[in-house]
């Protein structure tokens, strides 16, 4: 009998992989809609300017922000390489690439926190300052959730390494669910990295 994500019996075919695929897309769409509010705030407040109070000469380090974006891109690329190996049933290679992606992801979070603690301005110093700080804090929260997701899938894959199904062909259901979650994470993480790119362009280059 086929079991679902929490071990309950389900009808064949197992709907859990499809649910995980759909869930990752819905979650990604929610992130896009959420950060659209910051894009709107940026465009509206910058257009209004309010007698020069949008950005009274505030700047952030382009070099430091480029390092943050580079770490995010490397994390996404590393995970993409891992998923490519996962499609070839090379689980151990995927685990290695996923671990690298996880390290870069934690690096992105750490760099964001460091940047917030070393800013030369506060959120009350104009529209740009408030949008920058709010956007960055929201990104940190989303990225912490993403790293927890990846860590959960990675730990799960290590626990079930080498398992085979004695009753039917192919891996057991819980292994297939881990694989589906790993694929769903890839889509979600690329959406988060796309938000990082938009933030870099608007908050660092355009201002």
3D structure, described in words:
By secondary structure, the protein is mainly α. About 75% of the residues lie in helices and about 0% in strands. It has helices at about 15-50, 60-85, 90-115, 125-160, 175-205. It is elongated, with a radius of gyration of 20 Å. Residues about 165-170 have low confidence and may be disordered.
Dominant shape: elongated
The fraction of residues in strands falls at under 5%
> What share of residues is helical?
over 70%
Mean pLDDT: 88
Low-pLDDT segments: 164-168
Distance between the termini: 58 Å
Q: Radius of gyration over alpha carbons? A: 20 Å
Q: What is the tally of helical segments?
A: 5
The H-and-E topology, N to C, reads as HHHHH
DSSP summary, beta strand count = 0
Walk me through the topology:
Elements: H1 16-48, H2 62-87, H3 91-117, H4 127-159, H5 173-206
Helix pairs in contact: 1-4, 1-5, 2-3, 2-5, 3-4, 4-5
Short description:
With 207 residues, this protein is mainly alpha-helical.
Give the key terms.
mainly alpha, 207 residues, 5 helices
């Amino acid at each position: 009998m086929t079991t679902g994500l929490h071990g309950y019996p389900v009808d064949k075919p197992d709907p859990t992989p499809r649910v995980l695929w759909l869930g990752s897309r819905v979650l990604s769409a929610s992130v896009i809609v959420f950060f659209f509010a910051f894009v709107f705030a940026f465009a509206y407040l910058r257009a209004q300017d309010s007698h020069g109070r949008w950005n009274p000469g505030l700047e952030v380090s382009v070099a430091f922000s480029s390092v943050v974006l580079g770490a995010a891109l490397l994390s996404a690329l590393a995970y993409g390489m891992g998923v490519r190996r996962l499609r070839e049933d090379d689980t151990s290679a995927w685990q290695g690439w996923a671990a690298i992606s996880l390290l870069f992801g934690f690096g992105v979070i750490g760099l964001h926190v460091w940047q917030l603690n070393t800013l030369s301005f506060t959120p009350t110093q104009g529209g740009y300052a408030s949008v920058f700080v709010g956007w960055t804090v929201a990104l940190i929260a989303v990225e912490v959730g993403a790293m927890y997701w990846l860590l959960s899938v990675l730990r799960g894959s290590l626990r079930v390494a080498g398992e085979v199904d004695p009753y039917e062909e192919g891996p057991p259901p819980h292994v297939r669910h881990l694989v589906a979650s790993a694929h769903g994470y890839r889509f979600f993480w690329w959406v988060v990295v796309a938000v990082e790119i938009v933030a870099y362009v608007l908050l660092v280059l355009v201002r």
